[in-house]
Amino acid sequence: MGKRHEARRASTRQPRHAPHQQSTELRTLSIESLESEGRGVARHEGKVVFVEGALPGERVEARTTRTGSSYDQARTVRVLHESAGRREPRCPHFGMCGGCATQHADQRTQMAAKQRWLEDSLERIGKVEVETLLPIVYGEEWGYRHRARMSVRGLPLPRGALVGFHEKQSSFVADMRQCENLPPRISRLITPLRELVTALDMRERLPQVEVAVGDKVDVLVVRHLDPVSDRDAQLLREFAGREGVWLWLQSKGPATAVPMHPPSMPDLDYTLPEFGIRIAFRPTDFTQVNHGVNRILVRRAVRLLDPQPGERIADLFCGIGNFSLPLAASGATVVGIEGAPELVERARVNAEANGLASLASFECANLFEADTGKLERWGPFDKLLIDPPRTGAAEIVKALPDAWPRRIVYVSCDSATLARDAGILVHTRGFRLAAAGVVNMFAHTTHVESIALFERECAESPTLTTADPPPA
Question: Which of 113, 370, 446, 460 is 20 to 30 Å from 179 at the Cα level?
Fold first, then answer.
């Protein structure tokens, strides 16, 4: 990689806090659990030790990498007693690439840890206890990522280019040739993409390639910082034709993404077959990365919310209609509210295309500035579905009127903000946390997707059964 690049890589791996010291001490440790970054947790002489590469129930020999006043860090050298949940990582880049953290653990072990992280967050942050734990949603484990943002590092010739995810705990792009989490046909493109970028005049001004996989077409969005030369345009067109992908160019923000070659293709979309719905999207729109698990998540959300004809339901942070349209297909009148005008328009088009425009309407509003008056102008609503970004929905739950809704389904991509908002709902807004569980949206990572059901204290709970597929 060159001395300068190696030196910069090394500099990113120095301790972030001065009190931590480097060490090479070997210790024998018993692992109690997994923490939220996928490391084993042990205790040694009264201090917590985070052990990379270790799993709960194991006894390992580990080399100390950093020591501090409150905790130490270590890396597994040898497993003395192996967990039944340990397995050989499938990807040859595991440990170097930062895309995955837990490929050395089987799916049950990964999901048990995520369930525990969710319960711990609810108890520690929200000071709430869930009444019923929902069955874990498993789903596809490999080839599941239908969305990905791959970083690009165009190096001076003749060194070529790097295309992939960042190295572990580093801002540098991993030297990778495949990704087991991507569909095989997309993983196969990493090496051709490296060769393409190497050949481009703008190779050092091309920071990322975004992947969006639909049911009928695969899209690559090339982000470029300089105008595309005629020579580069020809190379890009040849690549798209040769590899059978739809290539888009993006010069600035997501709204500037436009098709390049071929000039047109079938819609980029995905289906929710249980509801007879097809949802179209642009490659830069937010959609769930795991289409198979998304289908199960939508089914569970609809069953928990239990929409009935004649009910009014709000879908807050509705995006392009992922939950709104299935709720409307169940017979309820749905109002989807979203802050991005382009997503609101896409949701309206999707409602029309699926014959649901009479039941599903959409409004554009900044939900982070919502107050009780604004909610009451939209309402009243019998039920809410809330699917916020990682920052959660604190302003929404604080502003809920006393009279409604009687039921909330909250889909979360961050267990800490879910726990915070659960505390508000339970301790100040008159709800109870009737059920919660985790969803394996991002296998082999420490990302926790979850779903929770809140009921007014006086309301009757729905039947908490699901027809989710059994674990793979």
Answer: 113
Same domain, 390 and 297: yes
- Predicted confidence at residue 464, as pLDDT, reads 52
Instruction: Specify whether 44 is located in the same domain as 160.
Output: no
Distance CA 433, CA 122 (A): 10
The answer to whether residues 282 and 320 belong to one domain is yes
> Is residue 195, in this structure, part of any structural domain at all?
yes
The vertex-309 CA angle with 400 and 305, nearest 5°, equals 50
Burial (CB < 10 A; 0-12, 13-18, 19+), residue 44, is middle
Please determine, for residue 252, whether its predicted confidence score (pLDDT) is greater than 90. Answer: yes
The DSSP secondary structure of 55-75, one letter per residue, reads -TT-EEEEEEEEE-SSEEEEE
Given the residues 91, 100, 179, 413, the one annotated as active site:
413
Same domain, 409 and 297: yes
Residue 471 forms part of a structural domain? no
Q: What is the pTM of this model?
A: 0.89
The answer to whether 50 touches 35, Cβ cutoff 8 Å, is yes
CATH of the domain at 63: 2.40.50.140
Residue-wise pLDDT for 171-207, tens only, equals 999 999 999 999 999 999 999 999 999 999 999 999 9
458 is catalytic: no
- List, in order, residues 6 or more apart from 404 with CB less than 8 Å away: 379, 380, 381, 382
Q: For the range 464-468, what are the long-range contacts, defined as Cβ-Cβ under 8 Å and sequence gap of 24 or more?
A: 464/132, 464/134, 464/304, 464/434, 464/435, 466/134, 466/135, 466/299, 466/300, 466/303, 467/299, 468/135, 468/137, 468/296, 468/299, 468/300
For the chain, how many structural domains are there in total? 3
Angstrom distance (rounded) from CA 393 to CA 447: 18
The answer to whether residues 290 and 408 belong to one domain is yes
